[in-house]
């Protein structure tokens, strides 16, 4: 067994790699994006980013030293959490990095629809000067249900309230959270969703949230509800969503994530006038690597001190 390794699967700047080396002088830091060094895979103790093939080999190895993985995303539904739990491997995510970007995205797509901007863009492409097909509403005083009241949900609520939107939240227990008029538990969501004008999904993908937006949930909403999904695609039953849009149960949907990505060329969603499609871009964030490094180095210092993590540790049995 050799010197323990920190394996960087996510590309970092040279000065950022050097920062990691300085914080972990007893480790060999492998920058996988710049070099293909000879190494013993089982000596990898820490991974930044996730190489699926290599990661699976480490999970299957009886002699692997892997103890902690820092994910580069907020969602961790692509990880084998049961395997992590059985082997006692820590997992942390990048929660908090994307909160401003996703919040701005949600308000951007809503303003594009409510103020007729989306229709104007279409008219511009056809060189048509017309107001006849432009509908407009005010976001102010709309009731928005934010499903998921973590970092992103709280940031969105703060921004939304600045526009006069009334913000309500849904979380696991219904506990009160800053920025919300009132919060409800998941089990009570279908009872209160009928009072909302806008429903925004920000939930991670778990067994409990898989296809939670189905025919039953859409029918529980009041006719004409606006739906935004910046959480996970498989939380939505696509066929039921299309039916709700066709019948007017939903008046508009802004979708950034989908059950299948890329969205298939033959999906009816592409041609629906009451749908705005973005290609999973809501979380794109300036200076992402610097913000990720801040989380990683905080966790690294704590891990080297006592084997625990300072922030964003995933509760493996919950999936978030």
Automatic annotation (TrEMBL):
Pfam families for this protein: 2-Hacid_dh, 2-Hacid_dh_C
Gene3D superfamilies per the UniProt record, alphabetical: NAD(P)-binding Rossmann-like Domain
Q: Which domain of life is it from?
A: Bacteria
The residue ranges of the D-isomer specific 2-hydroxyacid dehydrogenase catalytic domain are 7-310
Domain D-isomer specific 2-hydroxyacid dehydrogenase NAD-binding: from-to ranges: 108-282
Key words, A-Z:
NAD, Oxidoreductase
Q: Which GO terms describe its molecular function?
A: NAD binding; oxidoreductase activity, acting on the CH-OH group of donors, NAD or NADP as acceptor
The text of the family note is:
Belongs to the D-isomer specific 2-hydroxyacid dehydrogenase family.
Name recorded for this polypeptide: Hydroxyacid dehydrogenase
Q: Where does this protein come from, organism-wise?
A: Enterococcus ureasiticus
The organism's lineage is: Bacteria, Bacillati, Bacillota, Bacilli, Lactobacillales
């Amino acid at each position: 067994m050799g010197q323990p390794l920190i394996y960087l699967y996510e590309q970092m700047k040279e000065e950022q790699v050097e920062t990691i080396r300085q914080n972990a002088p007893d480790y060999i830091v492998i920058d996988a994006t710049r070099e293909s060094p000879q190494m013993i895979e089982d000596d990898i103790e820490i991974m930044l980013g996730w190489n699926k093939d290599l990661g699976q080999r480490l999970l299957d190895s009886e002699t692997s030293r892997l103890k902690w993985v820092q994910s580069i995303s907020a969602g961790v539904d692509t990880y084998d959490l049961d395997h992590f739990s059985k082997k006692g491997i820590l997992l942390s995510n990048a929660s908090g990095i994307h909160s401003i970007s996703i919040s701005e995205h949600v308000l951007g797509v809503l303003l594009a629809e409510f103020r007729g901007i989306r229709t104007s863009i279409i008219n511009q492409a056809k060189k048509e000067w017309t107001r006849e097909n432009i509908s407009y509403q005010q976001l102010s005083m709309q009731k928005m249900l934010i499903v998921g009241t973590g970092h992103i949900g709280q940031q969105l609520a703060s921004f939304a309230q600045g526009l006069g939107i009334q913000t309500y939240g849904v979380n696991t227990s219904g506990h009160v959270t800053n920025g919300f008029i009132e919060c409800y538990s998941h089990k009570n969501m279908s009872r209160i969703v009928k009072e909302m004008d806008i429903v925004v999904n920000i939930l991670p993908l778990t067994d409990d949230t898989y296809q939670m937006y189905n025919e039953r949930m859409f029918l529980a909403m009041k006719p004409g509800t606006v739906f935004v999904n910046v959480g996970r695609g498989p939380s939505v039953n696509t066929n039921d969503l299309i039916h709700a849009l066709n019948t007017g149960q939903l008046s508009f949907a802004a979708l950034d994530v989908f059950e299948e990505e890329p969205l298939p060329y033959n999906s009816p969603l592409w041609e629906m006038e009451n749908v705005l499609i973005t290609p999973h871009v809501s979380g794109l964030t300036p200076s992402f690597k610097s913000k990720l490094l801040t989380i990683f180095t905080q966790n690294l210092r704590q891990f080297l001190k006592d084997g625990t993590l300072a922030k964003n540790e995933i509760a493996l049995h919950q999936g978030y």
